[in-house]
Amino acid sequence: MFETKKIEGDKSAFYKELNTQLRYLLEGEDDYIANLANAASLLDVHLERINWAGFYLWRDEQLILGPFIGRPACVRIPLGKGVCGTAAQRLETLIVPDVHQFPGHIACDVASRSEIVVPIVVDGRLIGVLDIDAPVVERFDEGDRAGLEEFVAVLNQQTDWSKM
């Protein structure tokens, strides 16, 4: 049985330990649903001041809701719409300090105030996005970007996306 331990330290040390825990959690498992579900749970356990953590998967020319932790969410997001669709279209991480200032923001949970979205890309192909929302403005910064991009890299190393 995998057991999480409390992570302390500065942001860099925090993400180093979080990503180590993700490696151990996913060790020996390559199923994408199982890995995404456990990854969302790990984020929920360790990230403070968030209200949603999960994944949208690229299927049928749109992002479709995948494993997540939080309130019910939008099921389908077109490419280029909202923060998730924009990050997916650009294939780059987006940090939005205040979602109410983001043109075309999709409000799945009115309590969300800031957001970070990290695209999941393998061999230049969009797989989906990691989406994390927070109920406070300016929750995410460049330290979160670096740590969560590494989190997605670990996820990619451990996951067989060919079965998606």
Structure, explained:
The protein has 164 residues and is an alpha+beta fold. It has a single domain (11-163), classed as GAF domain (Beta-Lactamase, 2-Layer Sandwich). The chain is built from four helices and six strands. The chain has helices spanning 11-26, 32-46, 82-90, 142-158, and strands spanning 52-59, 62-70, 76-78, 94-96, 114-122, 125-134. Strand 5 and strand 6 form a beta hairpin. It is globular. Belongs to the free Met sulfoxide reductase family. Residues 17-164 form the GAF domain. InterPro entries: FRMsr_CS, GAF, GAF-like_dom_sf, Phosphatase_reg/MetRdx.
Q: What share of residues are in beta strands?
A: 25-35%
Q: Write down the secondary-structure element order.
A: HHEEEHEEEH
Q: Find the CATH topology.
A: Beta-Lactamase
Backbone structural class: alpha+beta
Mean pLDDT: 93
Helix percent reads: 25-40%
**CATH superfamily membership:** GAF domain
Tally of alpha and pi helices: 4
Shape: globular
**Cα separation of the termini:** 26 Å
Total domains, how many? 1
Number of strands: 6
In CATH, the architecture is 2-Layer Sandwich
Largest sheet: 6 strands, antiparallel
Radius of gyration: 15 Å
Briefly, what CATH class? Alpha Beta
